UniProtKB/TrEMBL annotation, chain A:
<feature type="region of interest" description="Disordered">
    <location>
        <begin position="283"/>
        <end position="314"/>
    </location>
</feature>
<dbReference type="InterPro" id="IPR007109">
    <property type="entry name" value="Brix"/>
</dbReference>
<dbReference type="GO" id="GO:0005730">
    <property type="term" value="C:nucleolus"/>
</dbReference>
<protein>
    <recommendedName>
        <fullName>Ribosome production factor 2 homolog</fullName>
    </recommendedName>
</protein>
<dbReference type="GO" id="GO:0000027">
    <property type="term" value="P:ribosomal large subunit assembly"/>
</dbReference>
<dbReference type="GO" id="GO:0000463">
    <property type="term" value="P:maturation of LSU-rRNA from tricistronic rRNA transcript (SSU-rRNA, 5.8S rRNA, LSU-rRNA)"/>
</dbReference>
<dbReference type="Pfam" id="PF04427">
    <property type="entry name" value="Brix"/>
</dbReference>
<keyword id="KW-0539">Nucleus</keyword>
<feature type="domain" description="Brix">
    <location>
        <begin position="28"/>
        <end position="238"/>
    </location>
</feature>
UniProtKB/TrEMBL annotation, chain B:
<dbReference type="InterPro" id="IPR007023">
    <property type="entry name" value="Ribosom_reg"/>
</dbReference>
<keyword id="KW-0690">Ribosome biogenesis</keyword>
<feature type="region of interest" description="Disordered">
    <location>
        <begin position="277"/>
        <end position="342"/>
    </location>
</feature>
<protein>
    <recommendedName>
        <fullName>Ribosome biogenesis regulatory protein</fullName>
    </recommendedName>
</protein>
<dbReference type="GO" id="GO:0005730">
    <property type="term" value="C:nucleolus"/>
</dbReference>
<feature type="region of interest" description="Disordered">
    <location>
        <begin position="68"/>
        <end position="88"/>
    </location>
</feature>
<keyword id="KW-0539">Nucleus</keyword>
<feature type="compositionally biased region" description="Basic and acidic residues">
    <location>
        <begin position="253"/>
        <end position="263"/>
    </location>
</feature>
<dbReference type="GO" id="GO:0030687">
    <property type="term" value="C:preribosome, large subunit precursor"/>
</dbReference>
């Protein structure tokens, strides 16, 4: 026996609708959590990432024992949390002797682990250590510029993967229109060597220039760190194909052979297939139309006329 | 300039990527590294703003508003694409009959109270329960309560619609297209005994069980909803073949063959002949041929095919096609010998 459960409160209904799968997705929520052992550096890193993504992230401050993202059984907790908080990117920090100041950035698809990147944090400078004019401080939740520089991002697998994951992590809400006044931050990511990446967060200053396009000036404001790529796990091919699917409903259907403007209206071209007239069978053979019969008739009438003449003559 | 075009800009994501950037010399100190990176970053952000400010902008209260183009880099989705809801039983029926949806009004004019009343819900038009007097019909038996009867009927109707709604939702849940605000909960737990290890079922066994289950239904499994990829129910038991209704009278005339077969069987059973002369003659001929051939073949057996220039064996070396009839002949002969002698 089954029972149909629908929410009794409108608030619950609204939450459920927000979590339902949508045709066009508007940005992923991030879950920030930590493992059994964290260092000071790691704590501040996680705190700063949380502050950078304030409105769209959830921070768990308790220690979690059984999370081992790269092991086959250790992902269940992460998947459960992803389901509970409706977060599809997670940042998991942990420190060990072998991997000091370790961060695992992972993504989920349908609350199942999609891919993982493990990086170590070095040379971390927190937001407080930067001195700058407070007027330039970027607003919370503004859409950032994201820049990647370096040939490593194209040639090396791990860096390519890291680029995609960082883009997903740092891009804000997916919006259709953007106010040009609210552009005030940028994440600058540079590939320093084959496994090291320099990440920094800067404020953007738009200065007057001669043309419509303003001149850009960057002022370092936010955390800056070196990320050393340690391990990564790419998604398996079938899952990747599924996750990259686009629905074809929204795409406009091409209408061929139709042109139009406001003066003439809609003009279309109709292509007629070749009507093989020569090979068509005539519908009915009217007796009087056939040439042979016509000629024969003529001859007969001539003959008859001749004969009558002769008879008449005789 | 050529160098400018090499920066890949994705305006939809406000993303810029310079794949040709490299450090001319490894930076000596941290500050050098930072300044070099900031310089590269500035260049890239400049490239993005170049593109951004050249888009057509509309004026809003805060400032210019720009419509961003679609992003070029594809990122994986976080959830699956929403699955289309399967049509409900009523929708399928309406489609097959060609019934169109009609727009209904929310308020209707109520004649009795001369006011606009809602068509459903509290204080509605034509409420079934509001009727004060129900006239008795000839078919009504005395002592039955028509009001109670109306209540019963309404209850039954509601139960039926609820059951249909549950079935529709179950169908949607099977496909994975349950609406987000609905959850189906089991009210009774399934009866479980000891946890026996699940035994491996082969594909054939599963098919057989499915077939059995299908034929156990009232209509023999014909109208069961099939899962995607499921084949039709296999028909167990004898398959009867019937002769076609109309057939020509040529060589393959099956009816003629059937009757001939029956006739020959009857004739053979009731014939008093001990010996089938025709068969005996052919048997004798075949035996003679084969003996002759064997003698000939054995002497030149090894060199028969090798002497021939093409290496082809001699024509008569093929296996005798009469061997089969020989066997049959002996059997037939035996059978005819077994025939009763009066």
């Amino acid at each position: 026996m089954m029972k149909i459960n629908t929410p009794k409160k409108k608030r619950v209904l609204r939450e459920l609708e927000k979590r339902a799968p949508k045709l066009v997705e508007t940005g992923k929520k991030t879950l920030i959590l930590q493992g059994l052992k964290t260092s000071n550096v790691l704590n501040s890193v996680l705190k700063e990432i949380y502050h950078l993504k304030r409105d769209s992230s959830v921070r768990y401050t308790r220690k979690n024992d059984n999370i081992r993202p790269f092991e086959s059984g250790g992902e269940t907790s992460l998947e459960f949390f992803s389901q509970k908080t409706d977060c599809s990117i997670f940042v998991y920090g942990n420190t060990s002797k072998k991997r000091p100041d370790n961060i695992v950035i992972g993504r989920t698809y349908d609350h199942q682990i999609y891919d993982l990147v493990e990086v170590g944090v070095e040379n971390f400078k927190p937001m407080e250590s930067f001195k700058y004019d407070k007027k330039l401080a970027p607003m919370v939740g503004s859409k950032p510029f994201i820049t990647f520089a370096g040939e490593g991002f194209e040639s090396i697998d791990e860096l390519k993967h890291l680029k995609e994951v960082l883009l997903d992590l740092f891009r804000g809400e997916v919006v259709e229109s953007l106010s040009l006044v609210g552009l005030d931050r940028v994440y600058v990511v540079t590939a320093v060597s084959s496994d090291r990446v320099f990440l920094t967060h800067c404020a953007v200053r738009l200065k007057k220039s001669g043309s419509v396009v303003p001149r850009i000036e960057l002022v370092e404001v936010g955390p800056s760190m070196d990320l050393v790529v340690r391990r990564h796990r790419l998604p398996n091919e079938s899952l990747r194909k599924e996750a990259m699917r686009i629905s074809t409903d929204g795409l406009k259907k091409k209408i061929k052979n139709v042109v139009g403007d406001s003066i003439q209206g809609k003009i279309g071209k109709i292509y007629m297939p070749d009507q093989k007239i020569g090979e068509m069978a005539l519908p009915n053979k009217a007796k009087g139309v056939k040439r042979e019969r016509r000629e024969a008739k003529l001859k007969h009438s001539e003959h008859a006329a001749k004969k009558r003449k002769e008879d008449g003559a005789d | 300039m050529e160098a400018e075009n090499q920066i890949q800009v994705d305006l939809g994501h406000l993303l810029a990527f310079d794949p040709y950037h490299h450090f001319a010399s490894p930076p000596k100190s941290r500050e050098d590294l930072v300044t070099e990176c900031l310089r590269a970053g500035t260049k890239l952000v400049q490239a993005i703003t170049d593109g951004l400010f050249n888009l057509s902008a509309t004026e809003a209260i805060e400032g210019p508003l720009v419509k961003l183009p679609k992003p070029t880099t594809r990122l994986p989705r976080e959830k699956h694409l929403p699955r289309p809801k399967p049509p409900t039983k009523w929708e399928m029926f309406a489609k097959s009959k060609g019934i169109q949806k009609r727009k209904k009004n929310k308020v209707l004019w109520d004649e009795q109270t001369d006011s606009w009343k809602r068509s459903y819900g509290y204080d509605r038009v034509n409420d079934d329960a509001d009727v004060p007097i129900i006239e008795a019909k000839m078919t009504d038996e005395p002592g039955s309560d028509p009001f109670a009867k109306r209540k019963e009927e309404k209850k039954k109707r509601v139960e039926k619609t609820e059951k249909n709604r549950l079935q529709n939702l179950k169908q949607a849940a099977k496909v994975g297209a349950l609406p987000s605000h609905v959850q189906l909960a089991a009210t009774a737990l399934p009866i479980t005994g000891t946890q026996a290890a699940p035994k491996k079922i082969t594909k054939d066994e599963l098919g057989n069980v499915a077939g059995l289950a299908a034929t156990a239904t009232a209509s023999g499994g014909k109208f069961d909803k099939k899962v995607a990829g499921e084949k039709a129910v296999k028909h167990q038991g004898k398959h009867r073949k019937f002769l076609p209704a109309a057939e020509g009278s040529g060589m393959g005339n099956r009816e003629k063959e059937q009757t001939d077969k029956v006739l020959s069987k009857l004739m053979a059973r009731n014939s008093h002949e001990i010996l089938n002369v025709g068969k005996a003659v052919s048997m004798y001929n075949v035996k003679k041929q084969r003996d002759g051939r064997n003698q000939k073949g054995r002497s030149s057996f090894d060199s028969s095919s090798k002497l021939k220039p093409n290496g082809k064996p001699m024509k008569g070396d093929k296996k005798s096609p009469y061997q089969k009839s020989r066997k049959g002949g002996s059997h037939g002969g035996g059978a005819s010998r077994k025939g009763k002698v009066d």
